[in-house]
Amino acid sequence: GILFSAAQAYMNVIRDRQVAVLTEQNLQFLTETARAARSRFEVGEGTRTDVAQADASRAAAVASLSAARAQALASAALYRQIVGDEPGKLKGASPVAKLLPSRLAAAVGVASNEHPAILATQHLVDAAAFSVKSAEGALLPQLSASAGVSSAYRNTSPLPGVGSQDGTTNSASVGATLTIPIYSGGRTSAIVRQNKESLSQARIQVDVSRDQVRQAVTAAWTEYTAAQQQLTANRQVIEAAKLALNGVIEERNVGQRTTLDVLNAQATVITAQINQAGYEHDVVVASYAILQATGRLSVDRLGLQVAKYKPEEHYNAVKDKWYGLRTPDGR
Prior knowledge:
The chain has 331 residues and is mainly α. It has helices at 2-42, 48-83, 104-114, 116-137, 187-253, 259-294, 299-302, 311-318, and strands at 142-154, 167-179. It has a domain at 1-93. Helices cover 68% and strands 8% of the residues. A two-stranded antiparallel ribbon has the order 1-2. The relative contact order is 0.13. The model has no long low-confidence stretch (mean pLDDT 88).
């Protein structure tokens, strides 16, 4: 739905902008590292290999920054397409945990009772059942009645020697017709069987819709819980990686580590930070995916201050019109 696409586009912009900022910070760090490696080489404390490794890492960071900025612009363009406005400065979002069921079984139960796809197929079953009854009605006798009253007035000029019948003539008629189907070449029976098969197909489609909704709810729920666990674990990864990086830098300064060790430690830090931005994005998007899978992703439940489309208003505006080409809004 459009609401889920908007939420996903919103979080994509936030994530990709964070990745671009982190990549830029990584480039600044690697630039300083390359400068320091070159300074140590000039005073005889480092090697040409250290300088080459630092320059290579910096060049890769430049390419990564270009790709990250391009991705951020692409996400902003998609946001503009879906929402209709430029993203501007977006605030951080949090998962809609308060609107979610407490457990997976409850989410599946809610979806089975409220999801529009399931409700739509159930209405199709009702429509198919009425079609069967209508087709069976063609096998029943049909009785029709008719009645009529007429009045005629006649005034002619009489001819010599010819009698005249001028005046008013009134007549009335009443009739009844009973039609009993005897033989239709099998057409009526075939239509009944066809509609019964369509009814069976509609009932099967209800089960198919339930299975599809159950799968979607389960997938969204597992993604949500997995993203939460990954987010929590990755915070510890970031803390440990930063501590390790500071230690490696200190050890490099006293000659116990090489520039390559520092570059590897920095790569671990930046990777963990980028992963953190992705996990934060996944938690929020998965929470909205659960709402969508259960059929509860709506303007009312989210409390959005937007104009809500009400189809009954359009229907009430045109249901009694016999003619006219204008739409309810005057077009």
